[in-house]
């Protein structure tokens, strides 16, 4: 069964937490997910009213939340969608990075700088290393600089000087060897 409602990764996280520990309080869920208790409360009410969770009275005023069969099906769907988005993003990053590295290798660069944080920047670093390029933290003006901002990847090449030699040590007359 496919659910066409606006459930997302936070709902998936809540379902996973409650599948492991139905006695978690809303405050504990909020703390683990880094969201406000009000947000957790709203999401729990929605998951319960849509039949993905069922409640059982706990100690005092506390409720225990149990994931239903349809909640398990929703978890599988959300996880599959998450994986599809992740692999799509990976393929996008990989293609952009390979195109930029093709340009670097065509100009005989053997070292590059990569700036950026997060998974996308790490993927770029791994792709560069797998292609045999050395990543330096600061190479001055002689290395291309690859900047990663989310899924946007750009490159700045160093300015070519009239007497500049390719970094692999070959001069232009001997490149046909």
3D structure, described in words:
There is one protein chain. By secondary structure, this protein is of the alpha/beta class. It has 2 domains: about 60 residues, Arc Repressor Mutant, subunit A (Orthogonal Bundle); about 70 residues, no CATH class. Helices cover about 45% and strands about 15% of the residues. It contains 5 helices and 6 strands. A 4-stranded mixed sheet has the order 4-3-5-6, covered by helices on one side. A two-stranded antiparallel ribbon has the order 1-2. Strand 5 and strand 6 form a beta hairpin. Helix 1 crosses helix 4. The termini are far apart. The relative contact order is 0.10. The C terminus is likely disordered.
What spatial order of strands do you see in the largest sheet? 4-3-5-6
Helices, by number, come to: 5
Give the strand tally.
6
- Overall SS class: alpha/beta
Calculate the mean pLDDT score and round it. 87
- What is the C-alpha radius of gyration, as a whole number of Å? 25 Å
Percent helix, as a range, is: 40-55%
**Amino-to-carboxy terminus distance:** 62 Å
Count up the domains: 2
